[in-house]
Write a structure and sequence with these properties.
This protein is α+β, with helices and mostly antiparallel strands. The protein contains 4 helices and 5 strands. It folds into 2 domains: about 5-65, no CATH class; about 70-125. Strand 4 and strand 5 (about 45-50) form a beta hairpin.
Length: about 150
Amino acid sequence: MFLYLNCANPSDPYDLGVVGYNNRDKEKKYYTLSGQGLTLYEQDAPVEFISLGQWLIERDSYNSIKKLSFFMQFKKWKYMRNWKKTIKQQNRQRAKNSLEEKLFSLQPHFSDHLKDHRKLMMDMSTFKFVDICRGDCKNIHEFEAT
């Protein structure tokens, strides 16, 4: 006697539901269960056989591992990590756009003019437009008189 099984939950390979012969998922994959074991069929051709005892051991191991807190919280952690990553990327992009707008000195058509202007200002700072005598200090009235 055979039982035909389809995967009831795609995220749990051991969650199998009993179906009739005509309702088996012959395009993708289905299982047959007998007293000897479990056979996996893909596209209506047998692919893998596992003894019933071995399958029960694997199923129990899978279910006990699935109950560990790490695996129970993994989806939450994954979504949280992806959310944080997305927020960081958005903040980085905003900062980049802001810098590109505000730092016009990095734009090629401004940078040459700014460099020339800076050079002229540095050259101008070496010129002495007013002769200041450091040793002779005058108060305001003496300054007005001269």
